[in-house]
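Single-chain item
Fold in token form
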Amino acid sequence: MRRRVALVLVVALSVSSVPTRVAVAQDVAARPDRTVADRAVDRAIRRALDYLRSTQKPSGAWAGGFGEATSITSLAVMAFLAAGHVPGEPGPDGDAVARGVRYVVEHQHPDGMLVSNNRGGPMYCHGISTLMLAEVVGMTTDAALADRVRAALGRAVDVIARAQDVKKDSNHDGGWRYQPNSPDSDISVTGWQVMALRAAKAAGYAVDAGRIDRAVAYLKRCAIKNGGGFGYQPGQGPSNPRTGVGVLALEICGAHHTPEALAGADYLLKNPPRWAGPYFFYEAYYCSQAMFQIGEKAYAGYQPRLASILLEHQREDGGWLSGDGNDQNAGVDYCTAMGVLALAVEYGYLPIYQR
């Protein structure tokens, strides 16, 4: 596998660290070991980011078929972060990131929820936005914005903790669903909350290890015992997107190479991605990250096909939109941000996805 740039971020605000990060970001595409295929991916990412910058709203938000949303805004911000662009970086990319972060912070509710559009379920949006804040918390040179991010992140983590503690039966304990008071759980919403908690913990916030243990137990109950893969809820059948969630969440939680995760990776190798499959861009995002965490052999068996599909179907304007109805409903900004995150995994800039 190509050499990956590792970058350690600290929670403390550090003005001097930002230029270093930007310089490293610029160096990736210039490295002499980049192959022709690598450079094609680099160009696709750059085109996609240019598209996202062109569609950012005056409010700083990005939008889907249901309007401006903290979730899609956070995914777009993470797409820029994944390519090495940070708040305070000179130029339009740094400005776009800072505006997106401000939009998310400004739309935090008094109870701590990070949501500007309730369609799709507030905990879904909240988990994505909490993850983004945990990734960006130490990356800005704007002291006022940094303070706001830190405060918002602390309140957001508390929301996730309270939602996990809602009384549920033993089959659903430890997980999350669409509402903060939901009496059941599903693997999709749970995946975002788990990654948000792990990212927040890495950023220095207090997260009880017992919460991660309970989430891991729930994820394992969603695993398919015979044939591999993960289902939406315990006892349900597998799919590629849900399997990507299960594998990545277990690996991120420190449950490395468990039988469930390895069987999930095998399932994905036997069921490669196909353009416009159900929840295609959700699959692209989660499965690329999951296979990267499993290891070089799994990643090499999965990622080239996915990258080929994404490069083949990138639009002239740099965006993506598959024919899947779910992708169509979410919109081009969502698909484009997810496409960048799927392609940029090897850059290694987002701390949560580093091995």
